[in-house]
Amino acid sequence: MYELIVQTHFDAAHYLRDYPGDCARVHGHTWQVEVTLVGRQLDDLGMLIDFKEVKKAVKAICDQLDHRMINEHDYFQQRNPTAENLSFYFYHELAGWLKEHHPHVRVGTVRIWESPRASICYRADDDISA
Ligand SMILES: Nc1nc2c(c(=O)[nH]1)N=C([C@H](O)[C@H](O)COP(=O)(O)OP(=O)(O)OP(=O)(O)O)CN2
Ligand SMILES: [Zn+2]
To answer: Among 114, 115, 119, 121, which is best to mutate for testing ligand 1, by the most ligand atoms less than 8 A from CB?
Structure first.
């Protein structure tokens, strides 16, 4: 099994609806994003997927959020823009892209850092072996 990892970041504003504290006020983060893709099958070049392609796909998702108010994004109008919801959103956007373009590869995890000291990692339930 191969595990491919790419990291990137985006800067954006958000606020947490109904949060009992200062995070209910508009503020910003540099969100770090780490995506892990997994698969067994390599292409003729000996690659799981070209890093360049993965970076482009992750960037396309980040670009929808970068330098914006995340709460105004369609997906986050009804959901709080927490690291949990962001990791779920990235996971499923990438899963859709892989299904269409690279069906032999799946998303392993998406980790989102709100700060260097706090992150959330999402993986699909059936990957949990406990
Ligand atoms: N489980 C989660 N908890 C919190 C989230 C979240 O997405 N998931 N988000 C927030 C707020 O966005 C808040 O801005 C971040 O809080 P915190 O990590 O405390 O950030 P600080 O920069 O204030 O951290 P300090 O260590 O106090 O500087 C809150 N909780
Ligand atoms: Zn915040």
So the answer is: 114
